[in-house]
């Protein structure tokens, strides 16, 4: 447990002012992956999401409040490709409250025949998924794909990602209206599964946009090597959750937060104290990795342990010292790109996390 004590010490030192970043070894020595963390790209302001283009060597990165979109290459260089219009942040300075959120290039994007890139963002009145054209140089056009997602002061979800089935999965928050999460006629507090034109994907469990429900503020989506969908969401007063997502399942909010024993509600596979603010997830090999905003940590959760009911005891912090959000796996490598957040204008970084 020495490594967890080290994490605690870092946190005690780092909560008000970011402490020097440090990698810590996992507590589960027999199965632990060790990580090397290096600063990879600097000059960022609250990066929210990182999503690779099909070339596998460069990614689009959104900035939350500036609404800017950059292309980040594997040498760490970045190029501004445009700004998403109509983005409204209600409370500048607090990255929790909307702005430009997720990004997902079309899986067949080539910049010529297929230029489609999808974004999720808040406007003055709603949260929406939009499509823009990216020709490899700049963004143009703006088409609303799915509007009418309610926005509140907070809890906007925001992650979007194409699944192995080619459909777009959209994590929506309950916009501080908790009862919407249990309403299968509302698209808030859900994981949605939609086509590129915003229609319900074929085979959805309720015949509408909804794939799963009972979510509070989900910001993480990732698939494992077996094609299983996982999601992370931030809790209210007690518990952040890592959930294994099944179509049609009810993940409990607001009746349940974390584990509970209510018929028809699906329990999480791992949890954190809600003060961690567990944001995004990515899969490398047989483990899930989770970034935390207020926990200042990157966590590793062995997938087999999570499936077997021991996710909480098996999870371990592998890096600590920075407020973290944007997280994605690098295609073809045992590597993550991980964005810091809330360090002030131009002071965030994208970190390269190499997993051994
Ligand atoms: Ca839940």
From TrEMBL:
Pfam family, one: GSDH
Record keywords, A-Z: Signal
N-terminal signal peptide: 1-21
Glucose/Sorbosone dehydrogenase domain mapped to chain residues: 45-288
PANTHER family: HEDGEHOG-INTERACTING PROTEIN (PTHR19328), HIPL1 PROTEIN (PTHR19328:SF13)
Protein name listed in UniProt: Oxidoreductase
Organism this protein belongs to: Streptomyces cellostaticus
């Amino acid at each position: 447990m020495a490594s967890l004590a080290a994490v605690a010490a870092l946190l005690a030192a780092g909560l008000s002012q970011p402490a020097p970043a440090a990698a810590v070894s996992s507590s589960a020595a027999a199965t632990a992956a060790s990580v090397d963390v290096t600063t990879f790209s600097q000059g960022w302001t609250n990066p929210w999401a990182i999503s690779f283009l099909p070339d596998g060597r460069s990614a689009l990165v959104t900035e939350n409040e500036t609404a800017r979109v950059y292309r980040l290459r594997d040498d760490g260089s970045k190029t501004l490709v445009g700004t998403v219009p109509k983005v409204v942040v209600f409370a500048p300075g607090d990255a929790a409250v909307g702005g430009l959120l997720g990004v997902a290039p079309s899986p067949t994007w080539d910049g010529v025949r297929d230029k489609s890139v999808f974004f999720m963002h808040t406007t003055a009145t709603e949260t929406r998924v939009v499509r823009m054209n990216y020709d490899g140089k700049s963004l143009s056009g703006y088409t609303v794909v799915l509007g009418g997602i309610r926005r509140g002061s907070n809890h906007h979800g925001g992650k979007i990602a194409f699944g192995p089935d080619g459909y777009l999965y959209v994590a929506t928050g309950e916009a501080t209206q908790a009862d919407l999460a249990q309403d299968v006629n509302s698209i808030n507090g859900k994981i949605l599964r939609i086509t590129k034109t915003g229609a319900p994907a074929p085979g959805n469990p309720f015949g509408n946009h909804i794939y799963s429900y009972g979510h509070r503020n989900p910001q993480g989506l990732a698939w494992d090597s077996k094609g299983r969908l996982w999601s992370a969401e931030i809790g209210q007063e007690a518990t952040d959750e890592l959930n294994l997502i099944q179509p049609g399942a009810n993940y409990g909010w607001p009746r349940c937060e974390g584990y509970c024993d209510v018929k028809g509600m699906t329990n999480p596979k791992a949890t954190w104290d809600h003060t961690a603010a567990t944001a995004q997830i990515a899969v490398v090999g047989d483990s899930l990795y989770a970034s935390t905003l207020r926990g200042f940590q990157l966590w590793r959760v062995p997938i087999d342990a999570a499936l077997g009911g021991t996710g909480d005891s098996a999870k371990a912090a592998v890096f600590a010292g920075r407020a973290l959000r944007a997280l994605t796996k690098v295609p073809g490598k045992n590597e993550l790109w991980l964005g810091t957040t809330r360090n002030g204008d131009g002071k965030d970084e994208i970190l390269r996390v190499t997993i051994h």
